[in-house]
Amino acid sequence: MTIEVRNIVKTFGAFTALDHVDLRVETGELVALLGPSGSGKTSLLRIIAGLDWPDDGAVIFDGENALERGAGERHVGFVFQHYALFRHMSVFENVAFGLRVQPRAIRKSEDQIRTRVKELRDLVQLDGRGDRYPSQLSGGQRQRIALARALAIEPRILLLDEPFGALDAKVRKELRRWLRQLHDEIHVTSIFVTHDQEEALEVANRVVVMDKGRIEQIGTPGDVYDNPATAFVHGFIGESIVLPVQVSDGKVRLGEKVLNLEPRDAASGPSNLFIRRHDVSIVPNGSGVFDGDVKHVRAFGPTQRADIVLHNGETETLVEIDAPRDRDLKPGDVVSLQPRRYRLFPAKS
Amino acid sequence: MVVNRPRTSSAHECRTEPVWVRWTLITIAVLFLTVFVVLPLVVVFTEAFSRGAHAYLAALSEPEALSAIRLTLTVAAISVGLNLVFGVIAAWAIAKFEFPGKVLLITLVDLPFSVSPVISGLVFVLLFGAQGYFGTWLQSHGIQILFAVPGIALATTFVTFPFVARELIPLMQEQGTQEEEAAISLGASGLRTFFRVTIPNIKWGILYGVLLCNARAMGEFGAVSVVSGHIRGETNTMPLLVEILYNEYQFVASFAIASLLAFLALVTLIVKTVLESQLEEGRPASDD
């Protein structure tokens, strides 16, 4: 099932949640909507599910207008951040709910429902008794039940709203890998919302980066990380050093100092220079683009992290870089830095 | 509260008030409860039985008393029934939907609590009395509202309206709309979602609201007094009859009826305590 979203606009009072959004998701894809809170990702997911209605635009499933159908008629499985399990129903009844409310003509017999619920519980790897209540389960178990319940109706599309947001870090990692595996098994077109870049990059086939109701970039995890399309994406995904610079006459200036960098196709005017923290090398003194004093060094894991104050005329700029553990660095050292990769984006006025 | 008595008294004293302060506070509280709660209850029952159980039962089986009991139960049943339906609908609309005028509706739900019951009764006299807005029309069609069961039921319903709604609004707001959304997206119709998801989640709250509503409906005096007309054996509810009998110096009869009301109040209190523990379980866990 392909999902097409065309020119969607959604406002809540004076707040624009979605500002002319276009998106196409292919059959069997697992797509992440990634962005900070208030970026409109959940609104978009709810509109696709039929839980909200756009002010303008179209939602098309396999060439059919989905906006003509209510949420119950779209055959969409929806998994909520806080699970939204029916608290007064047992695990079994929760999973069976979607089967029990089917129109009488196609409703399964009690035996068929039992078999189906068993299959689903095997699929989500939930053992234990079916007569327990949601309040007796851990967060991870609840989320598995929520997923089994959504899958019971054999949805054409699976939508997950911050599915792991309420879980602790260890369970989240485990469920992340498991969701990836599950998707490989059942291959239903899926979209999940997250504000966690690691989750998006690790699980999804494609990542849609959103900010302020707009899509900033759509691409594979490698794409959005290595070739960020906008300053926002560069700043939001991965850790970046950002330096306010001036581009003019084919030169890049930081304060008074002219940097030994090509402006490439950057337009003249105030700009931001983005460098990934791990894309900076320490080179023999005087031969790098920047010179600076080491302020602090924090060593842990495979790398050490150093705060460096750059020499750039009147103002002091503090940057944080990653360096190999075996490079001898201590506070007070003078170092020269060379960026291996960098990007220039015009500064927002 | 259980306090583990520490070994040294100095350690103990820095954690709690001195002995004399504690005992003074406890004494004041016990005295207050005795004078204002326990004594009146004891008086009601001793007065009711002052001439023996035979006189007590005789007073309760008087035709006037039986009529008052019947009327009180009828009126309570009607107003609890109406308030159950209206209360659930109002709470559902307020808790699950956003619409203009919501704040006004919440205020209106509370109105009967802030208006004196006598005023509430008077409103119905102004509307349905012989000189009231609908009085002439009602008279010409032979419909009797004031000084009859409909008037008493209306006034009681008005006074007890907030109980069910007030109990349900915070409960339903806390539970949110996600379970309903989940049910809808799984293909359940609106009606099915309401009866299979919304109602089971608030059943203890409904029971609790109904219980309080019922207690108040049976005990209501002010509003009922204005609209009843005090027709003996016809429009006197139990609280009205208590007053009439008392004014006629029939103390045993008066306190016998009062003891019945007090007994109902005690039963209500016990059921309420049981329900409260059930209600706690129905609330969403504060941390998940």
Question: What is this structure, in a nutshell?
Answer:
Chain A is an alpha+beta fold and 349 residues long. Helices cover 24% and strands 37% of the residues of chain A. Chain B starts with 8 loop residues before the first helix and ends in a 6-residue tail after the last helix.
Q: Could you characterize what this model shows?
A:
Chain A is α+β, with helices and mostly antiparallel strands and 349 residues long. In chain A, 24% of the residues lie in helices and 37% in strands. Chain A has helices spanning 41-49, 91-100, 110-123, 139-152, 169-186, 197-203, 221-226, 231-236; strands at residues 3-12, 15-25, 30-34, 56-61, 64-65, 76-79, 157-161, 189-194, 206-211, 214-219, 240-248, 251-254, 257-259, 269-276, 280-283, 290-300, 303-312, 315-324, 334-339, 343-346. In chain A, a hairpin with a 2-residue loop joins β9 (206-211) and β10. In chain A, α2 (91-100) packs parallel to α4 (139-152). The two termini of chain A are 42 Å apart. Chain B is an all-alpha fold and 288 residues long. In chain B, α14 runs antiparallel to α15 (251-282). Residues 284-288 of chain B have low confidence and may be disordered. The interface between A and B is medium-sized, with 32 and 20 residues.
